[in-house]
């Protein structure tokens, strides 16, 4: 689950990073032609897209991001298994057709946990960063506000209260917005998502300054800019490793101030705009002690302030944001479908003919062993013929195999009584039937038949082999993992012995008990 989420996250963060890069390059053009509020909404749309944990990409996306496969050990639940040749040759099968293996000292130990994969480690690192990033900012804000509130008091000067109430009335703001004074501050600011408060330092301001301060901060409150900044913080937390997302948050934070300034001077003459700019400049000369992500202080760098003043004094009419919105929508859709994160499939081992006889002599038992044939006898002569005998003389390729599992030696191996009882139940028999049918379709390269047993046939990670890829299989052995089946999941491992390979391969099926019965959630071939 974590690995799948991380793969989706990579697709989203890479595709949206391309959009952010384009928007940053086009920012001068967008700033000249469109009002600040449209940039404001564009950044918000991108931030919300970063928080949606779904991505829709083309099956064959042009940009494929390769990630390590979430592999398991070759024998997930049977790392300590050992089958002596004597026991294999003389063992008797139970009436149910199940073969029990001799218990060793290793069987008494708990199964060894497989090592973490690179994808799992990356997932845990991402999760740790996602929790640490907001924790750092929230903790810093709490400490900062604790210092501010230590010597805070309610505003009591008549001029301040009169101007504050007057500005609230002009802006049509209803509800409780508090006005407080704190000597720990060096400039005004707005805080409080739930209990909004306008803060003033312990300084004396004239009426013109108070009018600009209150109008500016209350517009922040009216337009829910603290909620906006919280969304940006959430996007930064989820994508903390992506520098483009932090650039987005920085530019969006600046545009929040531009939007507030534009609303504050809307419909005003040039004289008022200049006076507004002078007040902002005087407040900027005394920065607040902390630039909190959950507050609106009067902070900003030199270049940012020059751009801000240019925006305040700009009285030119600008276009609506429909073209910019269409451009953004096209970029988001195009980038999303053109990027996909695919699992890296480990290369199969090179076949060597040295151990053909060893595989055919120890890995398989005849299906008709219950009729009196010894359990350890080698497969029939048809199954033991060299793979080259099935090859076409013209192409030297294996001929397509139409055999079913009924044509191959097949057995079932269990390690505990609970697994034996489970396979004897109706649910266990249905699981075995599904596993056999899926394996048969997989070995035959029958994609349509495989899809009938998959919970998600359209998943792009599904591996559909060719009809000749597994034509040299000599025997199949079903092995069940020892696990809690109350959760509705079960690992079934199909041990495959090939006549042209020097090692056993395992088709691991992660089974899921659905309303329709046991289905294959996902699978993988390992050697």
Automatic annotation (TrEMBL):
Keywords carried by this UniProt record: Membrane, Transmembrane, Transmembrane helix
Compositional bias per record (Low complexity), positions renumbered to this chain: 346-355
Family matches, as InterPro entries: Beta-lactam_resp_regulator (IPR052173), Peptidase_M56 (IPR008756)
TM spans (from-to): 6-26, 38-58, 121-144
Domain Peptidase M56: 8-311
Region spans: Disordered: 346-411
Compositionally biased tracts (Polar residues): 392-404
Pfam families in UniProt: Peptidase_M56
UniProt KW Transmembrane keyword: yes
Protein name as annotated: Peptidase M56 domain-containing protein
Species this protein is from: Saccharibacillus alkalitolerans
């Amino acid at each position: 689950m974590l690995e799948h989420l991380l793969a989706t996250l990579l697709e989203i963060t890479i595709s949206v990073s391309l959009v952010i890069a384009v928007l940053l390059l086009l920012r001068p053009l967008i700033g000249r032609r469109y009002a600040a509020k449209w940039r404001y909404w564009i950044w918000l749309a991108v931030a919300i897209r970063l928080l949606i944990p779904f991505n829709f990409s083309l099956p064959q996306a042009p940009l494929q991001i390769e990630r390590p496969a979430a592999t398991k050990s070759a024998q997930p639940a049977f790392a300590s298994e050992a089958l002596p040749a004597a026991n294999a040759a003389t063992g008797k099968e139970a009436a149910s057709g199940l073969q029990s293996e001799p218990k060793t000292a290793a069987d008494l130990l708990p199964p060894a946990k497989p090592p973490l994969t690179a994808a799992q480690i990356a997932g845990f690192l991402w999760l740790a960063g996602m929790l640490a990033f907001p924790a750092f900012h929230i903790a810093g804000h709490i400490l900062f506000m604790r210092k501010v509130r230590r010597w805070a008091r309610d505003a009591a000067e008549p001029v301040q209260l009169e101007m504050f109430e007057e500005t609230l009335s002009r802006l049509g703001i209803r509800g409780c917005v508090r006005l407080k004074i704190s000597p720990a501050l060096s400039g005004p600011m707005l805080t409080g998502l739930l209990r909004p408060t306008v803060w003033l330092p312990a300084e004396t301001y004239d009426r013109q300054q108070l009018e600009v301060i209150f109008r500016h901060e209350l517009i922040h409150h009216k337009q829910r800019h603290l909620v906006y900044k919280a969304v940006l913080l959430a996007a930064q937390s989820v994508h903390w490793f992506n520098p483009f997302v932090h650039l987005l948050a920085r530019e969006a934070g600046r545009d929040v101030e531009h939007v507030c300034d534009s609303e504050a001077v809307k419909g005003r003459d040039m004289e008022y705009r200049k006076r507004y700019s002078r007040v902002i400049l005087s407040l900027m000369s005394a920065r607040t002690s902390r630039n909190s992500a959950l507050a609106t202080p009067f902070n900003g760098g030199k270049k940012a302030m020059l751009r801000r003043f240019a925006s305040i004094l700009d009285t030119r009419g600008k276009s609506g944001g429909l073209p910019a919105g269409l451009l953004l929508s096209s970029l988001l859709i195009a980038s999303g479908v053109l990027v996909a994160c695919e699992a890296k499939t480990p290369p199969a081992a090179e076949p060597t003919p040295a151990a053909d006889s060893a595989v055919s002599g120890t890995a398989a038992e005849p299906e008709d062993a219950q009729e009196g044939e010894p359990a350890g006898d080698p497969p029939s002569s048809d199954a033991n013929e060299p793979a080259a005998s099935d090859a076409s003389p013209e192409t030297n390729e294996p001929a397509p195999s139409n055999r079913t599992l009924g044509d191959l030696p097949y057995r079932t191996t269990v390690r505990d009584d609970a697994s034996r009882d489970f396979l004897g139940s109706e649910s266990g028999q249905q699981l075995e039937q599904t596993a056999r049918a899926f394996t048969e379709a997989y070995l035959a390269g029958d994609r349509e038949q495989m899809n009938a047993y998959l919970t998600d046939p359209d998943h792009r990670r599904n591996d559909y082999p060719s009809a000749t890829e597994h034509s040299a299989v000599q025997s199949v052995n079903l092995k069940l993992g020892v696990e809690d089946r109350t959760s509705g999941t079960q690992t079934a491992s199909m041990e495959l012995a090939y006549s042209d390979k020097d090692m056993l391969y395992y088709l691991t099926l992660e089974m899921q008990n659905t309303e329709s019965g046991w289905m294959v959630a996902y699978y993988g071939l390992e050697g």
